[in-house]
Amino acid sequence: MKIAVFSAKRYDREYLDAANVAQGHTLKYHEAPLDLDTVHLAAGYDAVCIFVNDKADAEVLAQLKAGGTGLVALRCTGFNNVDLKAAAQLGVKVVRVTDYSPYSVAEHAVALLLAINRKIHRAYNRTRDSNFALDGLMGFDLHGRSVAVIGTGKIGRVFAKIMVGFGCNVIGYDKYPSKEFEELGGHYAQPGEIGRDADIVSLHAPLTPETYHIINADTIARAKRGALLINTSRGGLVDTEAVIEGLKSGQIGGFAADVYEQEAGLFFRDLSSVVVTDDVLQRLISFPNVIITGHQAFFTQEAITTICETTLKSATEFQNGQQLSNEIKAS
Known about the structure:
The protein is α/β, with parallel strands linked by helices and 331 residues long. The protein is built from twelve helices and twelve strands.
């Protein structure tokens, strides 16, 4: 089957080629993202393989269908960039990677938490200048602190398990409570408990209309003063302007994120020699108590291998007319 792969970086090509040995598809790589300007590149291809910042709205999907594409394969878990209702109406199937490595993202969230709490980023820069002073680098023990886990799916549960290992009191919030989360030692929040008790809030929820800007001016105002906020899910969970105001007032003690709401066109690119004109991002990264990484939480050998293998197996199922194991349908 012919597959057009968009937003393809060197590592995508390497791992997809390795996974394709067992599947035998014809892969055409495009470094450009899928959008209205590039959708013509998919003409004549049976499937497109896209990533988190590619655009598959109704207009793009209609052009894909007209060009003969019947499958959109996301090499990620999130699917907020695909219009599922439009895909269903057009008869275009959509698949994703439902499970690659929850450890990769959860461990990165822990790394961000440790770094922002113990000021590792600032200490690293200081020691490179032979500055070994400790003023301004004090953190706090995680042991005994309360950690709120927003979203207790697979990734959230792995993160919670690690936090329990640190000796933290783990509070969960999820529309669909998990017995496994409680068995790990966590408990689900009572009204007002997160705002009153949480020293750390870590986001592990998908981006949906219900979770859009779940962290906003109101929830920040109700948070425990000085709490740390960690986001390794989707940028749209956070109202960045509200976070900036929270950082300025001291209501938020620190913010570490691997995602950003307006990351499309910025992340996964080397912009070190140009002027980045996103004023919100520039203000955000100017704070000494902020760490931003470029959507790399998923980026481990194990995760990328599973992502590529799962994506191409889904393409083979589609080619063979089999039931799609990882299909997403409009609710």
